[in-house]
Sequence to fold (367 residues):
Amino acid sequence: MTSLNFNFGGTDTRVFIQDELPSLSDILPIMGRDKRYHVICDENTKPYADEIGASVPICLSGSGEKEKNWDSIKKILKAACAAELGRDDIFIGIGGGVVSDICAFAASIYMRGARLALVSTTLLGMADAALGGKTGIDLFGIKNLAGTFYPARAVWMPLSTLKTLPPSQFKSGLAEIIKSVILDETIDENTAFEELSKGNAAVRLEKIVLAAVKLKGRIVEADPRETGTERAKLNLGHTFGHALEAAAGLGKITHGEAVAWGIVRACELGLALGITPPERAHAITHLLQNLGYETGAPHPALLSGGSGQPLARKFLNALNSDKKRIAGSLRFIIPAQKGAVIVPVSAEKMPLVQEIALGSLTEFLRI
Ligand code: GLY
Fold:
């Protein structure tokens, strides 16, 4: 077991990367032994909730992005209220990024903030969502429109749960791992890419999860609320990716698929702006292609069921409403010589962005 401690804007977070699921007798002492708790899971992670010893877990209606809504939050808050939980009692979320986001959001608003523990059971959750305090639900078709910053006090990452992850979910998480490798200036990128290109079976899970957690921990400690320039870099691939997810219909493609596609778009933008060295852009694109991610523009999800025209417009609207917009300019995270840099892109450069993201669909935007 590896244990790490972080402090995110005043909240201490302990992270445990271990082989097996923790039990309630591991979790409760860390969170305050005599406190009462409730466990939140989804239909996929209900067996884990049973395994850790939760008596009556609160199970979301289904699983996946569509659960990130007010109904899920109300269900969790209602159950907490019925169980007469107080602010010192514990919300334990068991699941991937969706469960983490929902459970953490509910914990953050219950009586102005209950104690939060997360057991992250997907690669995406371990590499990104469970750590660093971003919580949220989707509203009005916009991803994470409502949310808070509320770091968990403790996060468990039981690697055994990754062995039974559906391949699409593993691939989704791997995109966040690749993002992390691109951002991490302390590791040898070529060697890491070589290891990752060998595919799931050869990937040393503990090593890649630990590296991603260390990088994310460092970044969020430096900029817990994304007010500076550090944390925003974790959004590499997300400006394009979130717009794709929204245009395709939230939950239609996995988050990691969208991020991988967005990373390639960021490389192309970086190439056009003279920021990303061509050999680096090529290496990143080649790795993602080899691992089976969609790297072309327009993304096929924008072409499904028609000419693509309405989806191209939807994509553009989503891109323009990106939360990371500052003073009228969109901010893109672009791979540079090393790591990545934040580049504001003003309205005059938007045709270039559109061309890179939408390829042949760009012509519809002129109509
Ligand atoms: N997922 C990006 C962040 O936590 O900042």
Notes: The chain has a mean pLDDT of 93. The longest strand covers residues 11-18. The first helix runs from residue 24 to 31.
